[in-house]
């Protein structure tokens, strides 16, 4: 629809910390955009490898790969080139929202500590509670 062409694709195991081969392959394919679908810190590791190669594509991170925690953790590498694009169905944990208030209520009901609220918690609690209600 927008004229984008998928030039190449690489994969990695969740929890991997060495993404050097994958990033080198993407750089050699001369891609402009890299979408990193990572559950945790894969976004940071991908950017750190790009920094080592002095490569600055446009990185995009959907879901929890774009949480405030991840951007803070990898700030130096993630903002080395173009500012990354993150997308999530949740507002940042720092935002005041009805979803956050509801999630805090659920967390308290389950005996969890509100200080542990991060984007990943919003995902987990929301998905768990929604599935329990269905």
Short recap of the structure:
The protein is mainly α. The protein has helices spanning 20-28, 42-52, 68-73, 75-78, 98-109, 119-133; strands at residues 33-35, 58-62, 85-87.
- Main beta-sheet annotation: 3 strands, parallel
Instruction: Give the SSE order as H and E letters.
Output: HEHEHHEHH
Percent range for β-strand residues: 5-15%
Q: How many individual β-strands?
A: 3
Derived structural class? mainly alpha
- What count of domains describes the coordinates? 2
The first-level CATH class of the largest domain is given as Alpha Beta
> Which regions are unreliable across 5 or more consecutive residues at pLDDT < 50?
none
Counting H and I runs of at least 4 residues, what is the number of helices? 6
Describe the model.
- The chain is mainly alpha-helical.
- The chain has two domains: 20-87, Rossmann fold (3-Layer(aba) Sandwich), CATH 3.40.50; 98-133, no CATH class.
- It is 43% helix and 8% strand.
- It has helices at residues 20-28, 42-52, 68-73, 75-78, 98-109, 119-133; strands at 33-35, 58-62, 85-87.
- A three-stranded parallel β-sheet has the order 1-2-3, with no helix packed on it.
- It starts with 19 loop residues before the first helix and ends with a helix.
């Amino acid at each position: 629809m927008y004229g984008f062409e998928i030039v190449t694709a690489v994969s990695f195991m969740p929890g991997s910390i060495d993404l050097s081969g994958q990033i080198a392959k993407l750089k050699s394919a001369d891609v402009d955009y890299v979408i990193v679908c990572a559950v945790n810190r894969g976004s940071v590791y991908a950017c750190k490898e790009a920094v080592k190669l002095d490569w600055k594509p446009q990185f995009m991170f959907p879901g929890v790969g774009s949480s405030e925690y991840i951007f803070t953790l990898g700030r130096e590498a993630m903002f080395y080139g173009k500012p990354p694009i993150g997308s999530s169905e949740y507002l940042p944990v720092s935002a005041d929202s009805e979803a956050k208030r509801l999630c805090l209520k659920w967390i308290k009901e389950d005996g969890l500590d509100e200080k542990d609220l991060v984007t990943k918690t919003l995902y987990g609690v929301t998905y768990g509670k929604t599935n329990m209600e269905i």
